[in-house]
Each structure stands twice: as C-alpha cells, then as structure tokens.
Amino acid sequence: MRTADTKTPVDLSLPVAKTPAERPKLIAQHRRTAVLALAVVALFAASVLLGSYTVTIPDFFRILGAHLTDGEKIPGASFIVMEHKLPRAVVGTLIGAAFGLSGALFQTMLRNPLASPDVIGISYGASAAAVTAIVVFGATGAAVSGAAFAGALGVATLIYAISRSGSLGSGGQRGDAAGSRLILAGVGIAAALHAVVSFLLTRTDIRTAADVLIWLNGSLNSANWDRAGVLGIALLVLVPAVALLSGPLRILELGDDTAAGLGVRVGAARLAIVFTAVGLAAAATAAAGPVAFVAFLAGPIARRFVRKASLPAAALTGVLIVLSADYVAANVAPLLLDGTVLPVGVITGALGAPFLLWLLVTSNRKDA
Amino acid sequence: MSPLTTTAASAAARPAPESATAPGAPGLGPLALWLLAAVVVLALVTAASLAVGARGLAPETVWQALTRFDPANGDHAVVHARIPRTVLGLLAGGALGLAGAAMQGVARNPLADPGIIGINAGAALAVVTGIYVFGLSSLTGYIWFAFIGAAAAAVLVYLVASLGRDGATPVKLALAGAALSAGLFSLMNVILVSSRDTLDRFRFWQVGGIAGRDWSVILPALPFLLVGAGLVLATGRILNNLALGDDIARGLGQRVGLTRGVTALGIVLLCGSATALAGPIGFVGLIIPHAVRFLAGPDYRWILPFSLILAPALLLAADVIGRVILLPGEVPAGIMTALVGAPVFVWLVRRGKGAGL
After folding, report:
1. How many CB pairs under 8 A join A and B?
2. How many C-alpha atoms does A210 have within 13 Å on its Cβ side?
3. Which of B328, B288, B239, B349 is nearest to B97 (CA)?
4. Of A188, A199, A364, which is closest to B349 when you measure between CB atoms?
5. Is B189 close to A192, i.e. CB distance below 8 A?
6. Which residue has the higher pLDDT, A306 or B93?
C-alpha cells in the first residue's frame, strides 16, 4: 500500500484518467474512506460526551432513552444533552457534509481546487441577505435562514450568468477559462457585498451588530432541532441528487468536448450540478451561517487522504473539519479568552487561509 | 482654499516637463486638453463637495465663505466644516488612484487594487489589535496601525502570489488577497466577538469614509503621501518598460528588481496613508486607471497624472452622492465606491482581460 502511495504525484489537478485493474488501490481507498467514517463517529461522540460538560456513555443512552420514551428525565443533564449538545453535533455534522459535498462538486466540475462556494462569493450572498434581513427588517430565526438561502441562490445565479455569457468559445480551454472568470467575478461581487455588510453593521445598535457578527462568522451556538430538521430534509432531497449527478460529473472531468462526445448533455449537466452544489451550500449557510472554508478545504484534504477525488470522502472530511473546529471553538477557546465561545467559522477561517495560500504557492496550474 | 488649489495645481503642472521629454508622442495636444478637462472636473466636484450636503448651499455662499470668512454666518461655518473632509478626499483619492495605477503596472496585473489584494484587511486587523490591546479610540491613533498593517499585507500578498511557477498572475494575486483577507478577518473576529467595545469602535472605521476627520488626522499622513506620490510619479517610464516584460526591460538597461522595489515602496506609502486617512476604501484604485487607459492609452507617463486627478474626483463624487442619497443619514464614500466598483470589476473580468493578462 505504501509503495502505491508514494507513486501518486501530489498534484492539484484532479486525477482525470483512471487505468482499470487497480483493485488493491481501490480497496485501499475504500479502507481510507472507512477510516474517515470511523473518525466522524468518534468525533461526534466526543463532541456530545466530552467538553465543558461531560456525560458518560451509559448516562447518554439513559438520557436518550428517557427522551424518546418520555421516561424520567435527569434534571439538568437531559436538557444540556438533548437541547444543547446533541443538536449542536447533529447540525455540525449536517453542515459539514453539505459544505464538503458542495465544495467538492464545484471543484470537480470546474477542475479547479479554488472554485469552492466560499471562495467565489456565494457565502457572501447569503451573508448580505441575512444581515439585511436582521438589520433592516428585524428578522430572527427561520426568516434569517430563508433570507440566507435566497441570497446564496441569487448570487450564485448572478455569478453563473456572468461567467457563462461572454466569449466562451475558445476550444478545449473553455471550462478552465470559464472557471477562472467565475472565480474572479465571485471575488469582485464578494468585495461589494462585504461593503454592504460593513455598512449595515454601522446602521444598527451594538447589540444587534454583535449578534450579526457571530452569525457572519458561522456559528453552531444557536443550533437546535428545528434547524437540524430543516437541514435534514434539504439533504434528503439534495444528497440523492448528488448521487445521480456523480456519473455525469465524472465524465465532465474528462473535458466538455469529450463529455459531449460520450453523450452527456454538457450544459444541462453543468447547470444541474451547479444548482445542487449551491443548494447544499445555501442550506448549510441558512442553518449555521457561512462557516468559512469548510467547502474549500474538504475536497482537497479528502483527496490527499483517500488518494482519489471522492464525494463521500469529501462529505466526511467536511464533517470532521466542522466538528473538530467546533470542539476547539466551544471548549478550548473559552479557556483562553475568558469564557468567550468563538463561532466555529473563526477557527475554520484561521486554519483555511494558510492552506489556501499554500495551495496557491505550490500550484502548477496556469490559471490558478 | 489654499490646500485645494495647490494639490490640483501641482498635479496639473507635473506632466508638463515629462511630456516635453517625449516630443514624438502622438496625441500630445489632445491629451493635454483632456488633462485640463480632468482638472476642471476635479474642481467642479471639489466645489460640490463644499456646497452639497444635508444643508445645501449656493456657489456664491461657498465662494464668500472661502474668501471673506464671517464667523457669525452659519452657512460659512458649514462650508468650513466641510473643508477637512474635502481635502482628505482629495488626498486619499489621489493616493488610491496613483497607487492603483502603479500597482497594476508593477504587477502587470489589471486587477490589482488595495481592496482586492488584501491590504485593507491587513490594515483592519492592525487597527482592531490597536483598539483592543492598546485601547486606541481616536483616528489619529489608528493611523500608525493601519499603516503598518497595510504595508505588511501588501508585501505578504505579493510574495505569496509571486512564489510558484507562473509568478503573480491576476487570479493568483486576487486569490492570495482573498485568502489573506479571509484569514485576517477570522483573526480579527476572534477579538471582535470577545470584545463588544472594540466592535463598536471598529465598525465605524471599517466602512471607509472621509467624513468626521479633522486636520490632526491629515497632517501626520502628509509627509508619507508626498514621498509616496513623488516616488510613484517618477516611475512612469519605468512602468512603460516593465509593461514590455521583465526581459525586455532588462535589455533596455533597467535594473528591474531595484525599480520594482522602489515603486512598491511608493505604493505601500500611498496605500497605507490612504487607508489610515479614510479607512478601507476599495475599487477606486482599480477603476480609475482602467478608465484613464481609455482616455490616455497605455503610456504610464500619462496614466499616472490622469489617475492622480480623476481618482479624487471619483472619491469626492461618491462622498457627495452618499451625503444626499439616504437623508437624513449618510452613506460613507467607501460603500458608494464599492457599489460602483464591483460592476466595473465584473465587466473587466468578462471582457477577458482578467483571465488573460
């Protein structure tokens, strides 16, 4: 297994050609995906059981059983576990998976590791819409989530329209040029939306501004079962869509012309993939705010670990990132910062930026 | 009145000797006329900046307030109160325009702009640190922190973008800026989330505007602005050579590394002072040089002075419009420039210049 690993070049471009008869490699990949899944389970358990309020495993099942059967509740512990720790971990898991899948879809389709929804400004669309809803219309709860969802979709449509039209007909480089343009258009729109958000922050009282700031960073602090439910339903629709689209996606990786030759309707497939990916990112953002860089980090890290671009591995990696960052934000940071529970996005952002810079430095691609 | 006229006059005077050194340059006459027109536009916008606002004034009143100031006259007091922000707009705008043009030339990158490449984020993080750690509460105190932060971010982004095989391509520069911004904002948010006082002071600085500053903010930044403007304005010919590519520039006898370093120093001085003066203002340094290229062509000896004159006109116009668009409140100039600038940025990207150059 090791020798096979060292042969794999550490290359940013997605592995396009796969030679058949690589059965041992395939088994190793499955094994590594299984390792990721186990890590997710372990981390989920850790974030529910450990931390500033610890619960033993038997206690946890007693609490869970009591909750489900309407049995006798343990004062305090039941509330903390069922209304605080468990929904937090569940929402963290769901947004991790959604962001991870969304980023991997974008990165694979555009064949560019930089093209994730948080880098290209879709998250900023959600932010600007949500902050407008909070500050201008005094929205709370579900209305904010709805605004975030609509904002993400709106900005995604705008960016897609901008990058699609114009001079796209330049032969085989089409996908790459469109990808570059999409990223740059996103960066520009993000800068303008950032100005809007900054301005709105000055137009409100400091209490609202502080709340908005926490939302802007992406936080699991206000995770509850309602949000978990809505997000769960969204994923029930979107994950099967991802599974359906993974076939055309694999063929699109070979290039638009090849894909067209193989009978894929390129335009329709691209559009479907974009909107599924945006839907995933928007649903996750609506639930917890734009947690920075999870979508961007999950795909490349998963690929380095599993040695293959794999959507399930990206989803699992996204969960790992969110859960571990949230563990740090909720349990480690308060010790250092006089009890301030940091939004999880602060941690992912602080870790993600160096990774993006490193990716840029080591990149061999002309357009990235 | 005097600071206004000297700024405009020195700007107008500067290109004259430079153009004299290139007698063969085509279109000299029309360009000089255009430059004159630009100065007139700037003068008009400057006058508007003194006259327009929540309390609009007639041009005669403005003129009287400037020539025969009567302390008892309320209108005159209003005009005088608008002088610092107008001067600041002229200085910061000029600095951003020059820096943007030179940055695009040095990096040979049409998308270079202090907002895009992360300089504003660097300044912001430094200011937040200053507020939180050292308890700063005045703009005068912010200046130095903004300055250091902006300079550090500029150097870092350019270094990161130029590492790797292809050097500082537009996409790499923009992304390095976006990445650095995101990381710095995360660090900044660690402070902002834990300290509400810091957030309250910072949020008003962050929007970027030229209102509410007085001479105590402007004067300390002046030496840096002048040195930076001097360095950058002297580089017109150098940038022209660099535009041909490093190899050709070297062949023409230029010490590429040295000249690039000197220009970068000037840019950092200009950007740092502009950010210190007006807070993070994006897109002015991006749009103006591109607009100027339409007028003046690719010659940096013309692009630089045109940018110096038209950028403050844009910033002041943004400020004037922001004053009246949302009465009784004001929209800061930095927001207005971003709203105007983003579509221009997108248009540049779509035209294909962004991906190719």
Report:
1. 179
2. 16
3. B288
4. A188
5. no
6. B93
Is pTM beyond 0.80 here?
Answer: no
Distance CA B250, CA A2 (A): 48
> Mapped to the 3 state alphabet, what secondary structure does chain B carry?
CHHHHHHHHHHHHCHHHHHHCCCCCCCHHHHHHHHHHHHHHHHHHHHHHHHCCCCCCCHHHHHHHHHCCCCCCHHHHHHHHHHHHHHHHHHHHHHHHHHHHHHHHHCCCCCCCCCCCCHHHHHHHHHHHHHHHHCCCCHHHHHHHHHHHHHHHHHHHHHHHHCCCCCCCHHHHHHHHHHHHHHHHHHHHHHHHHCHHHHHHHHHHHCCCCCCCCHHHHHHHHHHHHHHHHHHHCCHHHHHHHHCCHHHHHHCCCCHHHHHHHHHHHHHHHHHHHHHHHCCCCCHHHHHHHHHHHHHCCCHHHHHHHHHHHHHHHHHHHHHHHHHHCCCCCCCHHHHHHHHHHHHHHHHHHCCHHHHC
Average pLDDT across chain A, whole number: 78
Instruction: Report d(CA A8, CA A113) in Å as an integer.
Output: 18
Q: How far away is chain B from the Cα of A119, in angstroms, using its nearest Cα?
A: 8
Judged on CB neighbours under 10 Å (0-12, 13-18, 19+), B58 is exposed
- Give the pLDDT confidence score for residue A99 in this predicted structure: 92
Segment 183-212 of chain B within 8 Å of chain A by CB: 183-187, 189-190, 192-194, 196, 199-200, 203-204, 206-208
B171·A177 Cβ contact <8 A = no
Task: Determine the residue of chain B that is closest to A345 in CA distance.
Answer: B186
CA distance A103 to chain B (A): 16
Q: Are A197 and A127 in contact, with CB atoms under 8 Å apart?
A: yes
Contacts of A347 in chain B (CB under 8 A): 186
Of B5, B97, B106, B104, the closest CA to residue B308 belongs to B97
pLDDT at A168 > cutoff 80? no
Comparing CB atoms, the residue among B176, B335, B349 nearest residue A181 is B349
Q: Which of B175, B283, B336 to mutate to test the interface with A (most CBs of A within 10 A)?
A: B175
Instruction: Calculate mean pLDDT across residues B307-318.
Output: 90
Cα angle B237, B245, B239 (rounded to 5 degrees) comes to 20
Report helix, strand or coil for A15: coil
Q: Which residue in A165, A349, A360 is closest to B185 by CB distance?
A: A349
Name every chain A residue with its beta carbon within 8 A of the beta carbon of B174: 183-184, 187
CA–CA separation, B113 and B120 (whole Å)? 10
Confidence of residue A166 (pLDDT cuts 50, 70, 90): very low
Cross-chain residue pair B164–A188, CB shorter than 8 Å: no
- How distant is the alpha carbon of residue B351 from its chain centre? 24
Cβ distance of B164 and A114 shorter than 8 Å: no
Suggest the residue from A194, A219, A365 to mutate for an interface test with chain B (most B CBs closer than 10 A). Answer: A194
**Rounded to an integer, what is the distance from CA A190 to the centroid of its chain?**
17
